[in-house]
Amino acid sequence: MKEQRRARHAHEQAAFTLMEVMVALVILTIGLMSMAVLMANVYKSTVRSRYMSLAATLASEKLEDLSSYGLSDPRAHLPGGSLTSDIAPANQTWNSGTVSVDYYDTVTLNNATGAMSETYEVLNGANVQFVTQTFTADGLWHWDSASGYPSTPSSTAPTVGETFNRRWVIQANTPVTGLYMITVLVTYVNSSMSPPVTFQMSTVRP
Predict the structure, then answer these.
(1) Any idea what the Cα angle at residue 112 is, between residues 108 and 117, rounded to 5°?
(2) What's the rounded Cα separation, in Å, for the pair 1 and 9?
(3) Tens digits of per-residue pLDDT, 131-153?
């Protein structure tokens, strides 16, 4: 009788130990899955922060560029532009003359060389064409003279790197009469990034 009780008790202990192992494995699996999700979110946040920082730098660079133009320069004083669509340059009247002003460009940062290429539109008579200028790490800038003035931006845009779209709006007599408000919106062009990386910045100048 004692031998039967001892055998049954040993069987119950073995069954209980197996149950403990199974519960422990389930808890460990849940913990590992949670850690994997956490690490993936941390990585995504780190990558997103990097692109947000680049977008902020490019927005600041464009505002400084537009703010550097003189009081008689239409590039910073001719109202127009859009933050929702690319506005092609058009011939407009400025101080009794005809001028063409851009309100957007595309910037590509080369991952291999660190060069920054800006592609924008120009008017060649009645034709809209694209020009790319590249700023290299040695402080020099270069025109895309090899392809001249193509009719599509794809032939000048670098194939390797991170691409950002910049749009800006110029508003006259804002926020008060005699001042101009310039707003720049930078968007990272990458369909896999959700939600899209964007950064908007404004400045006021005479």
Answers:
(1) 25
(2) 12
(3) 888 888 777 766 664 444 444 54
Contact 130, 118 (CB under 8 A): no
Mean of pLDDT values over 118-137: 82
In terms of phi and psi (left: phi > 0; alpha: psi -120 to 50; beta: otherwise), the region of 161 is left
With CA atoms as reference, report the closest residue to 82 among 65, 98, 102, 68. 102
Strands of 46-96, DSSP E: 80-81, 91-94
Count CB atoms within 10 A of the CB of residue 160. Answer: 10
Burial grade of 199 (CB within 10 A; 0-12, 13-18, 19 or more): buried
Domains of the chain, by residue range, sit at 49-205
Span 196-200, average pLDDT: 95
145-150 long-range contacts, CB within 8 A, separation 24+:
149/122, 149/124
pLDDT band at 15; cut points 50, 70, 90? low
Tell me how far apart the alpha carbons of residues 58 and 185 are, in angstroms, rounded to a whole number: 9
